[in-house]
Design a protein that fits this description.
Blueprint lengths: L5 E4 L7 E2 L1 H13 L11 E4 L6 E8 L3 H6 L5 H6 L2 E5 L5 H6 L32 H6 L13 H6 L14 E2 L12 E11 L2 E10 L5 E6 L6 E3 L2 H4 L3 H4 L6 H11 L5 E4 L2 H8 L1 E2 L3 E3 H4 L10 H9 L13 H18 L1 H6 L2 H20 L33 E4 L10 E4 L3 H11 L5 E7 L7 H19 E5 L7 H9 L4 E7 L6 E6 L2 H11 L3 E2 L2 E2 L1 E3 L9 H10 L6 E5 L7 H7 L6 E5 L12 E6 L2 H11 L3 E2 L2 E2 L1 E4 L5 H10 L7 H35 L4 E7 L2 E3 L2 E3 L1 E8 L5 E2 L1
Parallel strand pairs: 2-5, 4-16, 4-29, 6-12, 7-11, 11-13, 14-15, 14-16
Antiparallel strand pairs: 1-3, 5-32, 7-8, 7-10, 8-9, 17-19, 17-22, 18-19, 20-21, 23-25, 23-28, 24-25, 26-27, 29-32, 30-31, 32-33
């Protein structure tokens, strides 16, 4: 049974601000895993990384945390799916911070020609001592049995093995392991489509040692086809309509065609055997045979050209030809066996690959530079020599990482960089191409007319003003000489107070209280409206403004936000209590996972409230019942569901303590323009959320999806970014 990947992260309060270095840690580990010496990120943990189906990064160009909360109700899908969120500091060079440096390679003039930055070993073409092929096989020629994968190697590389848990229904070719150096070689290749079941075979080709085609058959999948992958497989719906052949028929034919000592050859042959649901003991995998350092692999297309001098998988053709690919893999294995490891190492394949990439870089620059928008500025800089970025190691998948967007994020030639003119085009391309790539970066944009700095300044002021109103409550009326100390004490039990002032414009005195956290203001409205405070029966309400008309809707949606699921807010704590004291006091609560004690970010002193996160939502509800009215060290506690337990708590604090002047001169000058465009902007944001929803639903289970609002850096100030992440599970939601 397929293992389910899981992501855990304690992103509460101060821990919810993540640097670009930490984000890079996550993406690198998710893409490469331990087998490439990538370490678990320091701030979160991915369980069963090797079972990840892929990594998809959605970048919302020139958008910030500000956009998410200004259009919180419009981002319906994002807030209901992604449990883990973090504040992201804006970066001057977002592409580099996203997937690391080393994407610009610089040629060096040496006696040997180009020096590869991808492999430190290749400084001289004659120096073969550290070549991965020589380290693995030695320099002497050997028979074919020396190059077949051992059982351990098959297990490590996800080959179907007899007796393994996921292969119980698989069919054996019934070939034995009595192979010799004169055993016959057979080239095998399959084309697959994506179905509700996963990868299913749509075409199978088998060639013999002379390159003669023994089998070239279309196969009808058992499950409903979700993506024919026509651009790569060449298979269309029309082609499969008359096909009657099923997988079981192919399995029977392969068993008849293969002699008992047959050795199958293929490129990443494990994928073909898994799709065929067949077990074969003797295999040569050319993606492993032509060994590279750090577990990377050469593509079949590159090897065919560099070793055999053959052009395969030409772009002019619709899809790959499995017979051509099977024959190429077979001939590569024959070349390796006949020539021996030393001759293969002397080809200096790393050097050839670097030269090919440099040519692609030059070509991409010529194509991308005229775009002249957003992230393109970095293309005008001279290329610099640096260590390779982790995207280079993704050759192990047999395909390039994928980049789709309006802007040219990538200047390296490492990605399939496709520039589109609209978000709709990007989405359509992503639905087709993302399932074929293990690492994808998809960039959407609201368009240049919505990213001007004056609009950011206006949005900032609107969001800050609305948050201030949501944190503010008015209470009264009170008697003329009421006790302010009693009022402060009673309202202080709901949470930390930012300011408390007396309203003198009214016939009877009222007080205006601004809290530091949303939960405190809401708790005051819920528990003290109609209560007797300082000798008066008072009314407690928020300010009545046009912006606050949807306040109750926002509060309800924040409560239902998946980020706040299983999290409760507790107020009325004595400031003398330490985190250790609280851990001990709350230890009797079932399934308590994390306790977060907010602190003043300037003084470091903790507040009279905390957040408790539980493993199960029901346990959080039980805790709410138990805590309300609970007395701790002589103080009565009050609690409710959390509204802003994670990164939002920190952002609210920062806005609360800012001078409120950011972009103010621009804001007042341009308010009319902002009002005119905001209605259109709401529609665009809603459509953007729908695009992401559609893309997310198309992803395979166990796909890590990260949505990034990169943040904004401008002369008028900067805006923090926002990250949302999760691993898609069977229910279509992100697994925690």
């Amino acid at each position: 049974q397929e293992k389910s990947c899981r992501l855990s992260a304690a992103l509460l309060g101060e821990d919810s601000e993540i640097s670009h270095e930490q984000l890079y840690e996550l993406l690198k580990y998710a893409a490469l895993g331990k087998c490439h010496n990538a370490a678990q990120p320091s701030w979160c943990r991915i369980y069963h990384q090797s079972h990840l189906a892929g990594v998809v990064v959605v970048v919302l160009h020139e958008m910030s945390q500000l956009h998410f909360y200004r259009f919180y109700l419009q981002f319906k899908h994002l807030r209901k799916v992604f449990r883990h969120r973090f504040t992201l500091t804006p970066s001057a060079n977002f592409p580099v911070s996203l997937y690391g440096e080393g994407t610009n390679l610089k040629p060096q003039n040496t006696a040997q020609g180009l020096t590869s930055t991808s492999s430190e070993c290749f400084t001289k073409s004659s120096d073969l001592d550290c070549d991965p092929i020589i380290r693995r096989y030695g320099e002497k020629k050997q028979g074919l049995t020396s190059y077949t994968l051992t059982l351990e190697e098959q297990k490590k590389n996800d080959y179907p093995i007899k007796g393994s848990p996921g292969c119980k229904s698989y069919i054996s070719t019934e070939c034995d392991q009595q192979r010799t150096d004169s055993s016959p070689l057979f080239g095998l290749d399959c084309e697959m489509c994506l179905t509700a079941k996963g990868n299913e075979v749509t075409r199978v080709s088998l060639v013999d040692a002379q390159g003669q085609c023994l089998l070239n058959e279309l196969v009808k999948p058992e499950s409903t086809v979700m993506n024919y992958r026509t651009r790569f497989s060449g298979i269309t719906k029309k082609m499969l309509l008359p096909v009657k052949t099923r997988l079981s028929d192919i399995q029977t034919r392969l068993k008849k065609l293969l002699p008992h000592d047959a050795v199958l050859v293929g490129h990443s042959l494990n994928s073909d055997l898994q799709a065929l649901e067949m077990i074969h003991p003797s295999v040569i995998d050319t993606s492993l045979l032509f060994a590279r350092s750090e577990g990377r692999r050469f593509k079949l297309k590159f090897l065919a050209k560099a070793v055999l001098g053959k052009e395969i998988q030409c772009e002019q053709k619709l899809g790959h030809d499995p017979t051509e690919d099977a024959r190429a893999a077979l001939e590569l294995a024959q070349f390796f066996i006949e020539q021996g490891p030393a001759k293969v190492a002397e080809l200096n394949l790393e050097m050839l690959l670097t030269a090919e990439k440099l040519a692609e870089v030059s070509q991409n620059k010529a194509v991308l530079q005229p775009q002249g928008c957003g992230f393109q500025e970095q293309l005008n800089e001279p290329p610099r020599l640096s260590k390779p970025c982790f995207l280079d190691c993704l050759q192990v998948t047999g395909q390039r990482p994928l980049l789709l967007g309006r802007q040219g994020l990538d200047s390296s030639g490492l990605c399939q960089s496709n520039l589109s003119t609209s978000n709709k085009q990007i989405l359509q391309r992503a639905l087709e191409d993302v399932p074929l790539s293990t690492f994808s970066i998809i960039q959407f944009s609201l368009g240049p007319e919505y990213i001007a700095s004056h609009l950011h300044a206006g949005l900032y002021e609107k969001v800050r003003s609305k948050l201030t109103d949501m944190l503010t409550i008015y209470a009264g009326p009170f008697e003329e000489n009421f006790c302010m100390k009693s009022v402060k004490k009673e309202f202080g039990r709901c949470g930390p107070i930012q300011s408390l002032t007396v309203v003198t414009e009214t016939f009877q005195p009222y007080v205006c209280i601004q809290y530091e956290v949303l939960e405190a203001a809401q708790l005051a409205v819920e528990s003290l409206n109609g209560a007797e405070v300082a000798g008066s029966c008072i009314k407690v309400q928020r300010p009545v403004t046009a912006a606050m008309l949807d306040c109750n809707v926002l509060i309800k949606e924040l409560e239902l936000d998946v980020e706040n699921e299983g999290v409760i807010y507790v107020a009325g704590l004595k400031k003398s209590l330490t985190e250790t004291d609280l851990q001990e006091e709350f230890s009797q609560l079932r399934d308590l996972e994390t306790l977060f004690l907010p602190k003043d970010l300037q003084s470091g002193k903790h507040r009279n409230c905390c957040f408790l996160k539980f493993q199960k939502s029901q346990s959080a509800l039980d805790a709410l019942e138990a805590i309300n009215g609970w007395t701790m060290k002589g103080s009565e506690l009050r609690s409710r569901n959390a509204l802003a337990s994670g990164h939002l708590w920190r952002w609210i604090w920062q806005m609360n303590h800012s001078n409120g002047k950011q972009g103010e001169h621009i804001f007042f000058e341009k308010m009319e323009q902002l009002s005119d465009s905001e209605q259109d902007l709401r529609k665009k944001v809603k459509k953007l959320d729908h695009h992401i929803k559609k893309l997310y639903r198309s992803l395979q289970n166990n796909t890590l999806c990260v949505v990034l609002f990169p943040g904004v850096n401008s002369t008028h100030g900067s805006q923090s970014g926002l990250g949302l992440m999760g691993i898609k599970d069977d229910g279509g939601r992100s697994a925690c």
